[in-house]
Design goal:
Elements (H helix, E strand, L loop, with lengths): L2 H15 L4 H5 L18 E6 L6 H9 L4 E8 L3 H9 L6 E6 L4 H5 L4 E4 L15 H18 L4 E4 L4 H15 L7 E3 L2 H15 L10 E3 L6 E3 L12 H12 L1 H9 L7 H19 L4 E8 L7 E9 L2 E5 L7 H26 L1
Parallel strand pairs: 1-2, 1-4, 2-3, 4-5, 5-6
Antiparallel strand pairs: 7-8, 9-10, 10-11
Helix pairs in contact: 3-11, 6-7, 7-12, 8-9
The protein binds 1,4-dihydronicotinamide adenine dinucleotide and oxaloacetate ion.
Length: about 350
């Protein structure tokens, strides 16, 4: 028996006799530390998902474990992460997975992370607006961002928890208070609006959605979601009726899913897909890839509002450049005014929550 077969035999014997303790499972390794060679030393980025046991968190964990840019994946939630970690950690992809459960383990979950993705918080039920989630989710996001400010102040942060139009300003205020705010590193995830827009436009035009690129600006709720159909690539023309239909469908895409799920939550699978698409863009930017451009809700001077979603170029420092809105038609200019009015209140509400 050669030495590597002997090593495998020894490990198999140990594994058969060891019943892993919960702390060993949290290390993403079912052997004791001395016997486990998976130390997470491979090159790549360290990513944490906060809210990893949820409807979005679980498929997001699965997809991030498949991302070759990720070397270490930390899964944090207030419940159920040991099981999800054990499950995902068996995938034969590169990232080492570690689970953390409950507030006492938040700091360990965050320490050393390059990218933190936050889908923690309650989802909508039929009849609710995203703003109806504010009372619960504002406190959750504030608490998690306090942890980030303390343990990984230089991490890039992707906020998914709704209402995004308020939770991003909450995060910014927490970081300002802690003296760690870097506007380039804080991004509200509006990617699902773009994913939907590409899909719905492709349906109407009879195109492959992978070939369609629709800029969606503003924010992430109702009329604040503003697709710029005059700037769709490949360049195309719509009838007035098509513009009304597509715009309404994009603005109400979240509600369409909430109603179809009939009380069982909101978009989770398409959101996990969108979150991974966006996180991958952030990681490619951090790696130094050129020309990575996506829409996101960020600290912005594109309008008079302090936060606004538009196309941004992602780089080694996070948001390297914020694109202007470009020429808008009359329909879009009217939409922009409506969007700004609602956004302004949502941003102020978030800021006031932390300053109060
Ligand atoms: N930005 C976007 O485009 C979208 C945002 N969302 C939002 O994402 C959020 C999560 O949605 P789902 O995953 O469907 O909800 P969910 O209820 O299935 O999962 C939320 C998870 O957060 C966890 N959680 C609660 N408090 C926490 C805390 N203090 N620390 C860590 N984890 C905590 C829960 O235990 C649960 O596992 C909701 O606010 C929803 O509105 C949903 C879809 C799209
Ligand atoms: O609609 C919701 O509550 C969830 C969400 O943000 C979306 O699906 O766009």
């Amino acid at each position: 028996m050669d030495s590597s077969s002997e090593a495998h035999r020894r490990i198999a014997t140990i594994a058969a006799h060891l019943r892993p303790s919960s702390s060993q499972m949290e290390n993403g390794c079912s052997l004791s530390g001395a016997n486990c060679r998976a130390k997470g030393g491979a090159p790549g980025f360290k990513v944490a998902i906060l809210g990893a046991a949820g409807g979005i968190g679980q498929p997001l964990a699965l997809l991030m474990k498949m991302n070759p840019l990720v070397s270490v994946l930390h899964l944090y939630d207030i419940v159920n992460t040991p099981g999800i970690t054990a499950d995902v950690s068996h995938m034969d992809t590169g990232a080492v997975v570690r689970g953390f459960v409950g507030q006492p383990q938040l700091e360990d979950a965050l320490t050393g992370m390059d990218l933190v993705i936050i889908p923690a918080g309650v989802p909508r039920k039929p009849g609710m607006t995203r703003d109806d989630l504010f009372n619960i989710n504002a406190g959750i996001v504030k608490n998690l961002c306090e942890g980030i400010a303390k343990c990984c102040p230089k991490a890039t942060v992707n906020i998914i928890s709704n209402p995004v139009n308020s939770t991003v300003p909450i995060a910014a205020e927490v970081f300002k208070r802690a003296g760690t705010y870097d506007p380039k590193r804080l991004l509200g995830v509006t990617m699902l609006d773009v994913v939907r827009a590409n899909t719905f436009v492709a349906e109407v035009l009879g195109l492959d959605p992978r070939e369609v690129d629709v800029p969606v600006v503003g924010g992430h709720a109702g009329v604040t979601i503003l697709p710029l159909l005059s700037q769709v690539k490949p360049s195309c023309n719509f009838t007035k009726e098509e513009i009304e239909y597509i715009t309404n469908r994009i603005q109400n895409g979240g509600t369409e899913v909430v109603e179809a799920k009939a009380g069982a939550g909101s978009a989770t699978l398409s959101m996990a897909y969108a979150a991974v698409k966006f996180a991958d863009a952030c990681l490619r930017g951090l790696r130094g890839d050129a020309g990575v451009v996506e829409c996101a809700f960020v600290d912005s001077q594109v309008t008079e509002l302090p936060f606004f979603a538009s196309k941004v170029r992602l780089g080694r420092n996070g948001v390297e450049e914020i694109h202007q809105l470009g020429p808008l038609n009359e329909y879009e200019r009217a939409g922009l005014e409506k969007a700004k009015k609602e956004l302004s209140g949502s941003i102020e509400k978030g800021v006031a929550f932390v300053r109060k």
